[in-house]
From TrEMBL:
GO terms for biological process: peptide transport; transmembrane transport. This is Oligopeptide/dipeptide ABC transporter, ATPase subunit. Residues 1-212 form the ABC transporter domain. Keywords: ATP-binding, Hydrolase, Nucleotide-binding, Transport. NCBIfam families: oligo_HPY. GO terms for molecular function: ATP binding; ATP hydrolysis activity. Its EC number is 3.6.3.24. It is an enzyme of class 3 (hydrolase). CDD domains: ABC_NikE_OppD_transporters (cd03257).
Length: 279
């Protein structure tokens, strides 16, 4: 699943809430029919054996004082309680999974490039043998050529290991390639949700349409992006009605007075817009 939206809309905050790095001010998060608070208080190791995080900045997320062996062994020791005799073999398997050479196991994070460091971050997450991986802008800090390599690696791992990704990005082209479902966020709320095909081929929210208009499409000439006017409202003081209405090219008086609910418009395709039939 991909989560998209402009900076400050709440994507990373949502990821941190899922990873218990922040506490919610209201509402609940459920995983396998259990409230996240249950795992936090009673079974946190079980939770982190199933859900792992890959950070945006690979270098800052790796302990500079530890070798790659020690970094990979940490989740094995703390989460899986892997026997010491099995750790070395597993470390080498993880390096192979992310296409890194076995001799890298004795090196330190500062000896690696950004792309290599992100591969190590992915290997560290895989060391816990999770079902779900939360990836917060995992390629945004990398060169374009390296981005493609990491995305292809993630696709390969998803197919080989049966992983589920919660993939946060502002790059819709990457989301389209990697994700099966997409949620579009604006000012802290999901305004559209559906399969990748539904959202990209038939958007039902004006904000989604604006985002999609910014994607370059080879062979299409004379197609201009939709330019939004103004800045996003203050999340601490949102406007009355639809939060997107001050910038929306379809907004009317109803939009400025009433808040649209997220409703299903077609086979799991949901939107929070009064004008979805006109799009």
């Amino acid at each position: 699943m991909g989560v998209v939206g402009e900076s400050g809309c709440g994507k990373s905050t949502l990821a941190k809430l899922i990873m218990t790095l922040e506490e919610p001010s209201s509402g609940n998060i459920f995983f396998k029919n259990k409230n996240l608070e249950f795992y936090r208080k009673n079974d946190v190791l079980s939770y982190f054996s199933q859900v792992q995080f890959v950070f945006q900045d690979p270098l800052s997320s790796l302990n500079p004082r530890k070798t790659i062996r020690q970094i990979l062994q940490t989740p094995m020791k703390k989460i899986l309680k892997t026997p010491k005799k099995d750790m070395e073999k597993r470390c080498l398997e993880l390096l192979e999974l992310v296409n890194l050479r076995p001799e890298f196991i004795n090196r330190y994070p500062h000896e690696f490039s950004g792309g290599q460091s992100q591969r190590i971050g992915i290997a560290r997450a895989l060391a816990a043998e999770p079902e779900v991986m939360i990836l917060d802008e995992p390629v945004s800090a990398l060169d374009v050529s390296i981005q493609a390599q990491i995305i292809n690696l993630l696709i390969d791992l998803k197919n080989r290991l049966g992983l589920t990704y919660f993939f946060i990005s502002h790059d819709l082209a990457v989301v389209e390639k990697l994700c099966d479902r997409v949620a579009v966020m604006y000012l802290g709320k999901i305004v559209e949700y559906g399969t990748t095909e539904q959202v990209f081929d038939s958007p039902k929210h004006p904000y989604t349409k604006v985002l999609l208009s910014s994607i370059p499409k080879p062979g299409e000439k004379g197609v201009s992006s939709i330019i939004l006017e103004g800045e996003p409202p203050d999340p601490a003081n949102p406007p009355k009605g639809c939060s997107f209405s001050p910038r929306c090219f379809m907004a009317n008086s109803k939009c400025k007075q009433q808040t649209p609910e997220l409703i299903e418009v077609n086979d799991m395709h949901k939107t929070a817009c009064f004008h979805y039939k006109e799009l």
